[in-house]
Structure formats: C-alpha cells, structure tokens
Specification:
The chain is α/β, with parallel strands linked by helices and 175 residues long. The protein contains seven helices and seven strands; from the N terminus they run αβαβααβαβββαβα. Helix 2 links the parallel strand 1 and strand 2 (50-56). The two termini are 29 Å apart. 35% of the residues are buried.
Length: 175
C-alpha cells in the first residue's frame, strides 16, 4: 500500500467548508485549560463537520499560536462563540431548541454505546475541565448525561480524546 500525498486527499477549502452542511451538533467547552486540547477539539470538529464550538469561561479563544499548533487551521473553518459563563451558553442552546448532553460520570448517565439519536433534532455536548470535569451546576442544566464506558484501571479520558469519541459517535448516528 502506498500512502496518499496531501494533494491526493481532495480536501475542501475553508470557504467550501463554511458552505458545507454541518451535523446538528454544537460542542461546548466548559473551562478547558489546555490550549492543545482546545486545538484538538477544533480539528476533530472540522473533520466531522460540527456546526459550532462554544468556548466558555477560562477556555482560550483563537487567534492563538498554541491553539493553532494542534488545530492546524481548523480554528478558521469551524464556527465558534465565546461565553464568559457556561450556564449562559446552555441557556441559549436550550432557548434555540437544542437537546443538551453533558459528558460526565453521574448517576443514571446514558452509556455512549446505548445512546440513540433523532436525526431531526439538534444537539449540544458539554465537555468539562481536565481536572474538575463539567461543573455540577452545568450538569444540572443539561437534559441528560452521556458516559463513555471504560474497562481499565483509569476512570477518565483526556478531554480531547473524549471529544473525538463523542463527536465521531454523533457523526455516525446523525449522517
């Protein structure tokens, strides 16, 4: 097998990306402190045509060289908004008719592999801080919570890895 050259991948331009239909998903980053994690979420959101990213609280915003290091330009293609308070972002999403999931380990969470989605509905997923997770008051505002099943000795995943798994799952179920 021969590896494909970048010129053979037939990637679309930023302008074409902006015109491309998106999956009905907004990713909300609740106080993410790592600029590399933020950049990775942008890059994954570009790969799977996510509608938008909401950057909340201490989450840094573009333009930023450290975000760009992992986003590789996806911060220019994926739409984003900044909210000082994650609760304001959730309120806006709910007013706009989004069904909002937090991604967290809570009582009565829905395991990701058991999640069913309605292709006619719009969704948002909230990913939390690398140490503290999604704020409890934000979890309380969400419609439900998704948990990624884990079978090893660790009880958590890196937030950018979590975002990749969840975004891919939503992409598969909504397209």
């Amino acid at each position: 097998m021969r590896k494909l050259k970048i010129t053979e991948l037939k990637r679309i331009s930023v302008g074409e990306f902006k015109e491309t239909p998106k999956i009905p998903l907004i990713v909300v980053l609740d106080n993410i402190r790592s600029l590399n994690n933020i950049g990775s979420v942008f890059r994954t959101s570009d790969a799977f045509v996510v509608e938008s990213i909401y950057l909340c609280g201490i989450t840094a915003t573009p333009p930023n060289a450290e975000i760009h290091k992992t986003a590789l330009g996806a911060e220019n293609s994926v739409a984003w908004e900044y909210f000082q308070d994650t609760k304001d972002a959730i309120s806006q999403l709910k007013q706009r008719g989004y069904f909002v999931y937090s991604i967290e380990q809570v009582e009565n969470s829905i395991m990701l592999d058991e999640l069913t989605l309605d292709a006619g509905r719009r969704y948002a997923v909230v990913l939390g801080n690398e140490v503290k997770g999604v704020q409890q008051e934000v979890v309380d505002m969400c419609d439900a919570t998704i948990e990624i099943p884990q079978y090893g000795t660790k009880h958590s995943l890196n937030v950018s890895v979590t975002a990749g798994i969840v975004i891919w799952d939503f992409f598969k179920k909504l397209t």
